[in-house]
Amino acid sequence: MHLIYGGTFDPVHNGHLRVAIELRERLGVDCIHLMPCHIPPHRGDPGGTSQDRLDLLNLSVTDEPGLRVDGRELTRGGPSYTADTLRQLRQELGTDRPVAVVLGTDAFSGFDRWEEWERIPELAHIILVRRPQAELSPGSVPESLLAERRVESVRELKARPGGGIYEIEPPMLEISATGVRERLEQGRSIRFLVPDAVVKEIQRRGLYAGEPGQ
Ligand code: ATP
Question: What spacing in Å lies between the alpha carbon of 163 and ligand 1's midpoint?
Answer without folding.
Answer: 24
